[in-house]
Structure formats: structure tokens, C-alpha cells
Amino acid sequence: MVNEMKKISSFICGHYVYILLFFCIPVEIKAEATVSLVTNEWVPYMTVADNGIFTKDEIKNRKCSDGHGILSCIVAAAFSLEGITVEFKFYPQGRAFNMAERGIENGAVGWNRNAEREEVFYYSDPLMKKDRVYFHLKSYSFDWKTIDDLKGLRIGGDISTNYSEEFMNAEKTGKIKVDRVAHKKFNFHKLAAGRINVYPMIKDAGYDYIKKYLSPEKAQLITHHPKVMHEATWHLIFNKKREENIRLIKIFNRGLQKLKESGKYDQYFKGGKLKE
Question: How far is Cα 223 from Cα 239, in angstroms, rounded to an integer?
């Protein structure tokens, strides 16, 4: 009888330890099958050609120089390395941000950091770093050294875009006035027509917009000031309301690191086709 009790006790204790181990040992995070991300057109980083689902075959065969967005390619490729498919949904910039803020989709592509947004979103590791400059007409004599030099100017801006901290504070306090619109192309049309004096924009993306949306005659009227407004970083943002999003950020960052280590990240910025 004593031996039988020992056997039962040993059986229960052994299984009790197993149960404890089962619940206490961290389980490997399983990737969701598909992630839904909202974004807006921002040539050459995000284009409407990327609207929809990126399959593995598309990721392997796409060239960013063929009209596909560089950031869209990078995000899809990084998630693919972790077994996740991405669906991009394109909306005007303000609406895309609003949808991400409300948690309607998993997240959004291509946003800067600021204190207010960090209360709402998880931020990925940087997707890219770029210089923002002021565009202006060649015929308009423009020079600046500090934010005070922008007082009294007609400044163009984009809805929901976070510029430098100094710029944002100057706008909030009324030191400068910024006329914000829903699409970047509108600001270049306004600039070409002389309706605004300056427009802050990423340098290489700005010239892509000029080439795409302005006639050659109007395009040659515009230049940029050589002084950099600020160096900005862009991220993938995931709303904190959705429980799965903290895991998705970790999964994405892991895939992004793999993409960089493989050399394929740099290939995307060069417009090269990626091969396994």
C-alpha cells in the first residue's frame, strides 16, 4: 500500500512539474498569416501600383524602378522573411493616418516619430533616413538660417505630416503659418503657380513628384535650398489598441534586420530585382 501511494504521489508530482513547465516556458511567437497596412502615395517610396497583396513570387520578381514603392517593397520583403503576407491599402494621407489611429487596420507605413504619436503607436526600427529641404521657385530669392527667417512666408505643408520639432512648435505658436493640403502634388502645383513661397519636402522624393506631376516647363522653374531642414526617419507604426501588434513589431524588426544583413535592403534603394 505504501509503495502504491509513493507511485501515485510520484505520478502527480511529475505531471504537476510538466504542467508548470508548459505554462512558464516562453512559447515561440507564431506569425500571423496576413498583415493589413494602410498607406498613401508617396513617390518613389509608396505608389498606388502596390495596392493589394504582395505574394512571395511578386516580392522576388518586382523591381522598385518599375513603378513600385521602395518602402512598400522593403516592408513586404521583411515580413515575408518571417512568413507573413502583407496587404497594402491606399488612401489619402489624412484618412490613412486616421484609420491607423483608430486601429481599423494593423498599422501604417512611412511615419515620423513624435511624442503624441508614441502614446498611440508602437514604432518599428527605422525604414529609412532622408534629408528634408525647402523647395522654392528659382525666381524667388530665398535664404534661411533659422526658423525666424520663415516668418511672413507662405509655406506649404501636408496634412498629418510631422516636420521638425522646431518647425512644428513654430506653427503651433503662430510664429509661422502653414497651408496644409491633402496631397503633395497640390503643393508643387501651388509652388509652380507662385501661390506659396516654400515647401518642405524630402529632396529626392520632391524631384520625383515634380517630374511626375508638373510639365517640363513648370518643373524647370523649381529648385531647393541647399541647407537641410532636418534629417528624418520613417517607420512602420502599429496601433497599441490591438493586442497582436506588439508581437508584429518584433517580428517585423527581426525580418528587417535579416533583409539588411542579406544586402537586399540596399538593392531596393538601388532599384535592383531581388533574388533568393
Answer: 37
Q: What are all long-range contacts of 76-80, with beta carbons under 8 Å and residues at least 24 apart?
A: 77/255, 77/259, 77/264, 77/268, 77/274, 78/252, 78/255, 78/256, 78/258, 78/259, 79/35, 79/251, 79/252, 79/255, 80/54, 80/56, 80/255
Q: How far apart are CA 190 and CA 20, in angstroms?
A: 66
In the DSSP assignment, the letter for residue 124 is P
Q: Which of 135, 153, 131, 157 is nearest to 222 (CA)?
A: 135
Mean pLDDT for back-to-back runs of 10 residues, the chain (276 residues): 47 42 40 81 83 71 66 92 93 89 92 89 95 97 97 94 92 97 94 98 92 96 96 93 93 97 89 47
Instruction: Give CA–CA dist 117/11, Å, rounded.
Output: 53
Q: Which fold has domain 130-231?
A: D-Maltodextrin-Binding Protein; domain 2 (3.40.190)
- Answer yes or no: are the C-beta atoms of 52 and 246 closer than 8 Å: no
In tens, the pLDDT along 118-167 reads: 999 999 999 999 999 999 999 999 999 999 999 999 999 998 888 988 99
**pLDDT for the residue 120:** 95
> Cell for 2?
505504501
The answer to whether 92 touches 55, Cβ cutoff 8 Å, is no
State residue 42's pLDDT score: 83
- DSSP for 251-274 reads HHHHHHHHHHHHTHHHHHHTTPPP
| Intrachain domains 34-128+233-269 and 130-231 with the same fold | yes
CATH C-level class of 34-128+233-269: alpha beta
